[in-house]
Write a structure and sequence with these properties.
Structural class: alpha+beta
Radius of gyration: 20 Å
CATH class of the largest domain: Alpha Beta
Strand content: 25-35%
Number of domains: 3
Number of helices: 9
Number of strands: 16
CATH architecture of the largest domain: 2-Layer Sandwich
Distance between the termini: 30 Å
Largest sheet: 5 strands, antiparallel
Shape: globular
Length: 301
């Protein structure tokens, strides 16, 4: 097969592993810088070009689209889909997962357990918004944040009001969520491929930090999932429409709840923590499922 990878940096661990795994299984792998792709969107002969040449003949595309280039990255991915190339994750599904509020609304509609979450616009609603999620301490989270950026723990009501006022001054959209202190700075990353969790790790925040992201100094270790947690992770990925997802779960006093569904989960932490070849599992999924014009969410917003 001929497989394209959309990635800003071919030297990143995840991109590198995808190339290695694909080539080891006999596939032709090519990496394209997402922002350097440009498109002919005419109806006569639509296509994608890269460095003066037309991108043609690909069977599948693996989108590794960073949050900062989501809009353009999804446009490029949609062009691949329009040309009939099989996407590992579809543009519609990635768009859903990148909108944190929409993702939570979709999960809530299907009955998936979530932290108590509030969203508002009017500054006069701040006091009631804080009460909605149980008061301080609480977490204020930018809708556009990623890898722990734009996530603030407010330990008092005054601190929460200050953070919220600052975000509103910046015209930023944000959520307010209950702080689950019994988790002690830990969450579980479930790596979902297709209809199963293929690997899982517990991430624990470094001392003095509440965010468990590995990019923020968190550590990873093996964890045993309950059947309910496995089922929840798979359901969350399916609700988003994602074939591959990193589903973040936190264990609370009222059961396990989903924090986030990541459409471009990194491979380094999960492969090193579990000693599993997740990259090859992804390529194997493509081998079994890739077909021209095969999209599940086509035409759905």
């Amino acid at each position: 097969m001929k497989i394209a990878i959309l990635s800003r940096n071919r030297g990143l661990y995840s991109t590198r592993r995808m190339v290695e795994a694909g080539e080891a299984r006999g596939h032709e792998m090519q990496v394209f810088d997402t922002l350097k792709c440009y498109m002919d969107v005419s109806s006569l002969r639509p296509g994608i070009n890269y460095r003066g040449e037309r991108i043609e003949g690909f069977d599948a595309v693996i989108p590794r689209i960073g949050a900062s280039v989501t809009v353009y990255g999804l446009a490029v991915l949609r062009q691949f889909e329009m040309l009939g190339v099989f996407p590992l994750n579809e543009s519609v599904a990635i768009g859903r997962s990148r909108d944190k509020l929409r993702a939570l609304q979709l999960l809530a509609r299907k009955g998936v357990g979530l932290p108590t979450t509030g969203f508002a616009h009017d500054v006069e609603d701040t006091e009631h918004l804080l009460k909605l999620v149980g008061g301080a301490p609480l977490v204020v989270k930018l809708l556009e944040g990623t890898q722990g950026r734009g996530v603030v723990l407010a330990e008092t009501a005054k601190a929460a009001e200050s953070v919220i006022d600052a975000f509103r001054e910046l015209k930023a959209n944000f959520l307010v969520q209950e702080f689950i202190k019994e988790a002690r700075g830990s969450d579980i990353r479930c790596f979902v491929i297709g209809d199963k969790v293929v690997a899982a790790m517990m991430r624990t925040a470094k001392e003095g930090e509440f965010r468990s992201n590995l990019h923020r100094g968190g550590t990873a270790s093996l964890v045993k999932l309950t059947p309910s947690e496995r089922s929840t992770a798979v359901s969350a990925a399916k609700i988003m429409g994602l074939n591959v997802a990193g589903v973040d779960i936190i264990r609370s006093n009222h059961g396990s709840v989903v924090l986030e569904v990541n459409s471009s989960p990194g491979l380094e932490g999960i492969e090193k923590a579990t000693n599993k070849d997740v990259a090859s599992m992804i390529i194997e999924f493509i081998e079994k499922n890739a077909a021209p014009h095969k999209t599940r969410t086509r035409g759905k917003g």
